[in-house]
Amino acid sequence: MSGAFTKSTAxxxxxxxxxxxxxxxxxxTFDTMKSLPKRDHRENITPQVVLxxxxxxxxxxxxxxxxxxxxxxxxxxxxNVYDRFGQSTEAIVAFxxxxxxxxxxxxxxxxxxxxxxxxxxxxxxxxKWTSEIDDANxxxxxxx
Length: 144
What we know:
This protein is mainly alpha-helical and 144 residues long. 51% of the residues lie in helices and 3% in strands. The N and C termini lie far apart (55 Å).
């Protein structure tokens, strides 16, 4: 091999690298498409979970909390809140109900949304459903 780096060599490296990474993309795409159906649990969606998701969006919970790493980082991650509260939807409902109407003095905290018991149970059902998603062990610790 000569010490000169020619146009032909550069072109071959470019085309070879392009083909390699395109094939890698195709393989990873097929692997992902093969594994996603095993992780799906849409059959567990109930009307209560749908209502909880709607309330989650209406109250802009994602504006402060993260859910599976998506959202704001002001408040705790909620993808594992069901596990953090001892796998109890009642504990989640009680925590949300316990928020003071005026917040905690001296700091910004979660407001009291004054939801009905049915709405609170729906939010808790949504968070329970979210915790059952196969999220490849994210977040990596129970605290979120």
